[in-house]
Design goal:
Layout (H helix, E strand, L loop, with lengths): L8 H13 L1 H13 L3 H29 L3 H8 L7 H15 L1
Length: 101
């Protein structure tokens, strides 16, 4: 069975950003926080979002591209014997389910 893929890099980046960030995170949260005097908190929030989110996003994209499998199976295929990296795949899936709720 042939896997689907994106036609352009821009489309992939926009879908990834939309899934990772969410529209409420982009518009409503900074607006409400700024209205109530929390502008510094928004700046620190964005800084830590970039510091923590970018490496995780890069790692998951690299694992997916290298293995061409799901999160759990990708980590199982690429990890060294005896390591526990496949647990991160399960945590990623659990995080996605919690986020969708």
């Amino acid at each position: 069975m042939k896997r689907e893929s994106f036609k352009s890099r821009l489309g992939f980046l926009l879908v990834s950003a939309g899934c990772a960030i969410g529209i409420g995170n982009v518009w409503r949260f900074p607006y409400v926080t700024g209205e109530n005097g929390g502008g510094l908190f928004v700046l620190l929030y964005l800084l830590f979002l970039i510091i923590m989110g970018l490496p995780v996003l890069t790692m998951e994209l690299a694992v997916g591209r290298a293995s061409r499998k799901s999160a759990v199976l990708g980590y199982k295929e690429l990890e060294k014997k005896g390591s526990k990296w496949h647990i991160h795949g399960w945590i990623a899936i659990l995080g996605c389910y919690i986020l969708m709720m």
